[in-house]
Amino acid sequence: MSAAAARVGAAGDAAGALAAVLEHFAAVTGTLHFLDSDGLLRLAAARGPLPPPVLEQIRSIPVGKGMAGECARVDAPVSWCNLQQDGRGVVQPGARTTGMAGSIVVPVRDGSRLVGTLGIATASERVFTEAETAELMQAAAAMVRFRPATGPA
Questions:
Q1: How far is Cα 7 from Cα 153, in angstroms, rounded to an integer?
Q2: pLDDT tens for residues 46-70?
Q3: How is the chain split among helix, strand and coil, in percent rounded to 5?
């Protein structure tokens, strides 16, 4: 078990687990979404300085929209060295208003089944290494226990 996953395991709730992940990776903001029965990603926890309009936009996210939606669509990590310089149109305009730069979103899986996404961002440019990505994936897997019972079976 990775150090990040162990910290998630020690947390009492999703917000505390997300805070532990942010601290471990020296990140500023983070979100945890779970797939709902309607196929939308629903916000389970958010930490950091996210403007109210951004929080409103990320309460429910269609698969394929924005970084979390794209991560869910491809069922694989999605990352940007700098959110402010997305030339492919994946990063939504609201994400730029956060002022964050380096970011990554990884799938939350229950076994091999996608059940959500975990995203973190830093205030400066950052490329997450393969080892960091793998550790974040382990932390995401440990977040499954915070999934609401109303999610897809």
A1: 27
A2: 999 888 888 898 999 999 988 899 9
A3: 40, 25, 35
